[in-house]
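A.,

Following up on our hallway conversation. Structure tokens first:
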């Protein structure tokens, strides 16, 4: 938003050139909605925000009537499915730290080769 309209001081003028429209929608909200779709989790609030913002944009990522993605537009976003990531397994697999050969990085503190909730190499506190 930019400075208030002098003729309507109780309102603001929407700045449609703002970063939010051109970065946060296709590389934020669309990604979140797509991850939800992959995981089977509804994202009605993301959908609502995308539909509202695209009213002011020359592109549409979501059909405003159905709330579904316009598949051809996903290639213009950071949506995982635009890169062939369409299952929870592929989503996890592509999120892991590996080198080009597929080997895990030994110094990776976030993933040590297991999916437990307890990080590897962390001792339980002694009570």
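Then the amino acids I'd put at each of the 127 positions:
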């Amino acid at each position: 938003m930019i400075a208030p309209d002098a003729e309507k001081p109780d309102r603001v003028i929407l700045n449609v050139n703002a970063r939010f429209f051109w970065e946060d929608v296709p590389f934020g909200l669309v990604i979140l909605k797509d991850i939800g779709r992959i995981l089977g989790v509804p994202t009605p609030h993301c959908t609502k925000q995308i539909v509202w913002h695209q009213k002011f944009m020359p592109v549409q990522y979501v059909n405003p009537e159905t709330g579904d993605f316009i598949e051809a537009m996903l290639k213009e976003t950071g949506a995982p499915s635009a890169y062939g990531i369409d299952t929870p397994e592929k989503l996890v697999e592509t999120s892991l730290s590996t080198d080009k050969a597929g080997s895990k990085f030994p110094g990776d503190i976030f993933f040590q080769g297991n999916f437990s909730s307890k990080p590897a190499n962390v001792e339980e506190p002694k009570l």
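Residues 115-119 have pLDDT under 50 and may be disordered. Curious whether your intuition agrees with the design.

B.
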